[in-house]
C-alpha cells in the first residue's frame, strides 16, 4: 500500500499544528506586492543600481533572486518544490526581463548554493541585512 502524502500532510496539520509549523516554515513575504519595496531596499543595501541588477554584474541579480526566494519560502533551496505561483512573473516584471530568465536564475542559484560556499555566504549576508531592517 502506497502512502498518500497529501492526506498525511492534512492530518498532521489538523492534529499537530506545532509539527506542521516546523515542517512547513512560513516565509517573511506575505504578499507579492511587497517585492518592489524589497527591491528598493536591496538596491540600498548592496549599493547596486538597476543596470547592475539587470546585467547581473557580480551575480547581483542571482543574489537578489536568492534572497527574495528565501524570504518567500525558506525551504526552497532544500526542497524540490516549485516557487510560489506568481513570484516568477513578479520578479520578471520588476527586473524588466522575461520569466524564463528568472527560471534560469532560480536553477542557477540552486546550483550555486550547493557548489560555491562564497556565493552562499553572500546570499546569507544580504538576507541578514534585508531581514534586520
Outline the fold blueprint.
Blueprint: H1 5-15, H2 17-23, H3 35-46, H4 50-55, H5 60-72, H6 87-95, H7 99-115, H8 117-132
Can you describe this structure?
68% of the residues lie in helices and 0% in strands. It has 133 residues and is mostly helical. The chain has one domain. It is elongated and about 55 Å long.
Give the CA-CA distance, first to last residue.
50 Å
- H/I helix tally: 8
The total tally of domains equals 1
The number of strands is 0
Radius of gyration, CA atoms, in whole angstroms: 16 Å
Low-confidence stretches: none
- Strand residues, percent: under 5%
The geometry reads as elongated
Structural class: mainly alpha
Tell me, rounded to a whole number, the average pLDDT: 86
Helix content: 55-70%
Biggest sheet details? none
**SSE ordering:** HHHHHHHH
Q: Would you summarize the structure shown here?
A:
The chain is an all-alpha fold and 133 residues long. Helices cover 68% and strands 0% of the residues. The chain is built from eight helices and no strands.
Question: What are the key terms here?
Answer:
elongated, mainly alpha, 133 residues
